[in-house]
């Protein structure tokens, strides 16, 4: 396909045709900073070898032309020429209409859900350990829906480590590398009782908060104790749909969280319940009534409305229409995004037993493993 390219603003930018119907503008400074040549980027790891100070402040483009699918660009005053593949430029284009997305939007990799479209993805642990394609699909479910379950694992203490090893590492906290979720005498946390628990995110008092949580079932013969998951992103979007002002209050003002449940531990954080990026993308939910401290960062004139929004958020969390529930079987492990999903459980009786082991991990490790698994497929498609 013949492609067009032309310079603008005395070479401070160019417009390149990347498809039959789409052209994009790129600034000279951006192109030079992102040059793909071996003098700018390490061939071994792709890391940048120069700083911005190494690029002349008066950088501009003197020539640009297509050779097949490669755009050759020459810069002055360096006299340096580099090439950019058309597909690379299309994947990194930043020239788009200012869409002004409504606060609470999510990217294409995330599908917010409620009970109408929440699906539980399950796969045997042995399959995940031996089949890269199955692992890729399973990790993709965690990225997209925020959770997935492994099944048919051993029912021995510490088996949880085998699940973490699929994608990353354990993040140790004051609860230890692994923690037990079962009834205790004089528990340090209400999670270690048979009480039902409202939907919540874990460790909101920690900064940074653990971004993944895993719960592995070793025993579950007690009556009750069903596990519940709620997509906090979808709950936040529903709040925005019915009360935009309330959404703005929960995302603008900081709540406070605190944990002082054991000797030598005093954890505190000051963060919004609904965390957004500067352009309104949903980044994280922090909701935990048990660990909420006194809210002191909301002005007097907004506190009444803030609490109304807080109450409504909790009502949406409690609404079965926004949840999926399941009863874990021994040998099953759920992995979920602790910065997005809230988890809960129904109460359970003293008859029988319910023993889960849990741990925390980090989402970046899971997403890194997923990207690496997908990379060979992307290369094969090119």
Radius of gyration: 25 Å
* Number of separate helices: 9
According to CATH, the homologous superfamily of the largest domain is: Clavaminate synthase-like
Average pLDDT works out at: 93
Question: Quick one: CATH class of the largest domain?
Answer: Alpha Beta
InterPro entries: AlphaKG_dependent_hydroxylases, GBBH-like_N, GBBH-like_N_sf, TauD-like_sf, TauD/TfdA-like
Domain TauD/TfdA-like: 122-360
GO molecular function: 2-oxoglutarate-dependent dioxygenase activity; metal ion binding
Family: Belongs to the gamma-BBH/TMLD family.
Question: Could you give the topology of this structure?
Answer:
Elements: E1 5-8, E2 13-17, E3 23-27, H1 28-33, E4 60-67, E5 70-76, E6 80-85, H2 86-91, E7 122-124, H3 125-130, H4 132-145, E8 147-151, H5 160-164, E9 179-181, E10 197-200, E11 212-220, E12 227-231, H6 232-242, H7 244-252, E13 255-259, E14 267-271, E15 274-276, E16 282-285, H8 300-318, E17 323-326, E18 333-337, E19 341-345, E20 354-361, H9 363-381
Parallel strand pairs: 7-8
Antiparallel strand pairs: 1-2, 2-3, 4-5, 5-6, 8-18, 9-20, 10-19, 11-18, 11-20, 12-17, 12-19, 13-14, 15-16
């Amino acid at each position: 396909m013949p492609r067009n390219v032309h310079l603008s603003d005395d070479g401070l930018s160019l417009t390149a045709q990347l498809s039959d119907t789409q052209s994009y503008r790129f600034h000279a400074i951006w192109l030079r900073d992102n040059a793909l040549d071996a003098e700018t980027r390490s061939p071994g790891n792709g890391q940048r070898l120069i700083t911005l100070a190494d690029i002349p402040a008066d950088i501009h483009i003197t020539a640009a032309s297509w050779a097949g699918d490669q755009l050759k660009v020459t810069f002055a005053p360096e006299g340096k020429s580099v090439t950019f593949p058309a597909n690379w430029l299309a994947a990194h284009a930043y020239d788009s209409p200012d869409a002004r997305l409504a606060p609470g939007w999510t990217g294409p990799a995330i599908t917010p859900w409620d009970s109408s479209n929440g699906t539980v993805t399950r796969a045997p642990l042995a399959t995940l350990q031996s089949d890269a394609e199955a692992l890729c699909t399973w990790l993709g479910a965690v990225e997209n829906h925020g959770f997935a379950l492994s099944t048919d694992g051993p029912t021995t203490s510490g088996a949880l480590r085998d699940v973490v090893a699929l994608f990353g590492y354990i993040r140790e906290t004051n609860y230890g590398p692994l923690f037990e979720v079962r009834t205790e005498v004089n528990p340090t946390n209400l999670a270690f009782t048979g009480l039902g628990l409202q939907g919540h995110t874990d460790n909101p008092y920690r900064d940074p908060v653990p971004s993944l949580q895993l719960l592995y079932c070793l025993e579950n013969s007690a009556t009750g104790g069903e596990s519940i998951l709620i997509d906090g992103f979808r709950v936040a979007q529903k709040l925005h749909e019915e009360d935009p002002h309330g959404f703005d209050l929960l995302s603008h003002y900081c709540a406070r969280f605190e944990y002082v449940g054991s000797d030598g531990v005093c954890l505190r954080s000051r963060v919004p319940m609904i965390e957004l990026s500067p352009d309104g993308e949903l980044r994280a939910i922090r909701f935990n009534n048990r660990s909420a401290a006194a809210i002191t960062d909301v002005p007097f004139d907004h506190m009444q409305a803030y609490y109304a929004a807080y109450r409504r958020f909790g009502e949406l969390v409690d609404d079965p229409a926004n949840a999926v529930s399941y009863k874990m079987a021994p040998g099953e492990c759920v992995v979920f995004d602790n910065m997005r999903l809230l988890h809960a459980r129904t109460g359970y009786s003293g008859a029988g037993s319910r023993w889960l082991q849990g741990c925390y991990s980090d989402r970046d490790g899971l997403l890194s493993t997923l990207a690496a698994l997908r990379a060979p497929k992307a290369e094969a498609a090119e």
